[in-house]
Each structure stands twice: as C-alpha cells, then as structure tokens.
Model the fold of this input.
Amino acid sequence: MPRAHRFDQIMVSYGASGGLPMMPSWTSTPSTSTDGFGSSVASAGDINGDGFGDVVVGAPSATNAAMVSTGAVSIFFGSATGLSLTAQRVSVGAAGDQFGYAVSAAGDVNGDGFGDLVVGAISASPGGRTSAGTVYVFHGGASGVAATPAAEIAGTVPRGALGAVVTGAHDLNADRFADIVVAAPLADDPAEGESEVGVVRCFHGGASGVGSTPTREWTRVEGPAGLASGYRVGRSLSRPGDINGDGFGDVVFGSGDNNAKRDALWSAGSMQGASANLTRISTASSADREVGAQVDLGDANGDGFDDLLLQFRVDGMRRTEVRAGGAVGVAASGALVVAGHYDAGFVGDINGDGRAETIVAVNTIPIFVWPTAAQLYRGNPGLSWVMPDWFVSGPSFR
Ligand SMILES: [Ca+2]
Ligand SMILES: [Ca+2]
Ligand SMILES: [Ca+2]
Ligand SMILES: [Ca+2]
Done:
C-alpha cells in the first residue's frame, strides 16, 4: 500500500467516465501539522452501509486525552455530493502507540452488511512486549464504527512492529466473510536467534468477526518450497485480488531490505484459506534490488484475472511493472508502467471501463527530493503504457 511522504493535506479526486478532473474534488487539512495526519490513507469501504464509499485517514502522532502520539484515525463518510467535511475520530491505546500508522478497509468481516476497519498501532506494547505492535479491527454500523475495537491482535515479538502493514477485504476461503492480512516486518525469530526476519499472518472473518488465532502464518520464507531465507517478510502486502480466477482470494507480499534482491511471494487461496506454499515472483536480472518493495493486485487488462503490480529497483531507480494474472498464476514477465518514481499502486477502475488504473507518485521538480505530482496510467487490454493519462501537482503535494 502506498504511504504518504508528508502530512500536509489530503486530496481526493472523484472518478468519471472521462477519467479524473484536473483539480481535486475534495481536500482536508489537519488542524495541527504535527499529528501525522495523512501519513496513512485508504478507502474504508462502506462503513455505515449507506451505499457510498468512505475514506479513512491515519494520524499516528496525534495526542489523545493528553497522551502524546497515541495516534488517531478519522473516517470521512461518502454521500451523493461527495465526502463529508467532518470526520468520526477514533483513538485507542496508550501514549506512543502510533495508532493509525497503517489503515485499511477490513471488508465485512462479520457479515452484517456494514464495512469494517483495520488499524495498526506499530509501537503498542501488548503484554509488556515493547513495540510488538497491535492490530485493531473495528466493526462498522449505521452511525459509523464502534468506539471499542471488536478484535485486538497483539504482536508476539518485542520491536516486531505488528501492524506496520495491514490489508483487509480479502476472501481467502471464499466464505463471504472478509479476511485480513497483517505483517510485522521487523519481527525477530528468537528461537533461531535471527533478527528482523518478519512475519505475515492471515485472520479469517466469521459471524463474530475476526478470530484471534492466525489461519496462516509465514516467516523466514524458506524450506519446502525451496525459497531462500527471508528477511523483513511482509514489508509490503497486496490488496485483495484473485490472480488465478478460481474465486478464492490470493495474497502477495514482499520481503527484503534495501540492498538485497529478494523476491515477492504469492499464496493462492482455497477452502482452507491461503496456501502454506508460496510461489516466488522474481525478475531476470540478479542486479535488481527490492523486488516486491511494493505489490498490488488489480485487473489492469480487464480479462477477469487480477494482475500484479510489482515494484523493484534498478541502478538505484524504482521501476513499476504489471504482470498479467491467469489460470496458472502470475506471468513470468511484465510490462513497464513507469520508472524513476516513488510509491505506486492500483486505484480501482476510475473511468468505468472494467480495467484498473495505476497511480504513481513522481518528482517533477528535481530540486526537491520528494514526490511533487501524481500520475495516472489507464488500464488497457494489451498492458502497454507510454505516457500518463492524467496528473495532478501542487505546492502541498510532497
Ligand atoms: Ca461488518
Ligand atoms: Ca473469508
Ligand atoms: Ca485465487
Ligand atoms: Ca487481468
């Protein structure tokens, strides 16, 4: 999931058959510039069940009840005239927890028709385990989310930062209860004496919401599948998707530090949920780095199979490519969307043609070292991109 680099202003542009407008449709600016408002942003799904999509914004450095950096999230509700200007604010935990570091729609985890929310608090210390991190799930309702979380998933390893990356609205076992996938990319493996191996955990929804026991867990990423030892497993997670079109949701995640090649890995869903077996997704050149630094799933060519957005680094420059999904999995090679940019991800089908668009953050002002504009690349049947179809830039976009 893309993350914002600075926390000045959130801009939302409403899609239409012609694409996106040149000016943002909605903006929100925080009351203070120190609470980290906007360092995480996500579609929240439909939290209050009124048929309009909602947006969640994290402010992990926000003060709550005089506790500094407890963190908070704000939910802006959609309507026929756009997003609300005021938000429901939710904050849980203790000083320094950084609640809201990561946010995602959970999907409908308890099957009551209201969308639910998943929030990561990376510096929470459950059970005295310093900065093990905690993930919270909130159930939606007609008046927004309940102030008390329905589920708390506690990190098990000190300094593991569970909740640094969270995604929801998966359905890995196709039972119509949404499932969530969360990562603790910095988790050590005390049993093996290894540091920062990372862990990814899946949790299935059900009538009472998300259970507290993971239905699948990957760490170290080695062994039967013949994969090399993992490192920082779960540094990136895909949003929900179905790569092989079998009706079971699949999940892709990345691993690795800044200097390693590493690979992205994907697991196919089934009746039992995500498979323990992982399929490696790599690039041809051994000189490439951080393969899977960002991953996402969306149907960019409109063939009914979700395609993989894969980011990696070549000679210090990031590249984003899209690889087609199909009945046998992810294609072995992909089409370059754009090189030399910052974060990238799919943004759904903005122009209603049945194909997912790709959005990337780019730098158009070389004296700055942060992104200065966003570019949109339309999905197309041949998975071929040359120029962006839309961009927006501004002094506050960084
Ligand atoms: Ca629900
Ligand atoms: Ca499910
Ligand atoms: Ca599948
Ligand atoms: Ca496709």
Notes: The chain is about 0% helix and 35% strand. Residues 171-173, 175, 177, 179, 204-205 surround calcium ion (ligand 2) (CB under 6 Å).
